[in-house]
Amino acid sequence: MKNSLLILFAATLVLSCNQNTKTNQSGKSETNSETEHIANFDWLTGKWKRSNEKAGKETFENWNKISPTEYAGIGFTIQKGDTISKENMKLLHSNGKWSLFVKTPKEKQPIEFKMTESKSNEFICINDSLDFPKRIQYGLEGQKLKAIISNNEMKIPFEFEKEK
Fold this sequence. Notes:
The chain is mainly β. It contains 1 helix and 12 strands. The chain folds into 2 domains: 2-35; 42-162, Lipocalin (Beta Barrel), CATH 2.40.128. The chain is globular and about 45 Å long.
C-alpha cells in the first residue's frame, strides 16, 4: 500500500512539473492557454482623410488602440462646415474572435460584423442579416488605408491618406 501511494505521488509530481510553458518577453513563464495569439491592427491607428471623396465633402476616420483586444474608431463627413454623417466603430476581441461594431446616431445598438478573414494588414467582416452593407473590408496598401463596404450588387470604395 505504501509503495502504491509513493508511485501515485511521484507520478502526480512528474505530471505537474511537465506542464507546457513558454517564456514571455518579460521573462515570466506562461501556460499555452495564456498565450493565445491576438491579431495586431496597429496599422489601422491614426487620423485618416478620404482622398476619393466627392467634391464639396471631406470624410475622416480616426482610429485609436485602446488595448491589445480593442480598437476604437470614429468616422465622419463634413460638408459646408457641418457634420452630415457620423459613425462610431469598435474592433473588439472577445471569446477568441474579433468583431467590428458600427453605430450611427440612427441605431439604438451597434451592429456587429463578424471577422471572417484577417491577414497582416487586412481584414474582412461580414453580417449577412443586413441588406447593405453585408461586408466591410479594410486593408493597408502602401501608405493608403482602403476600405470597401459592399453587398452582392454594390461596392463603395473608400481610400484614405494618413494626416500629418
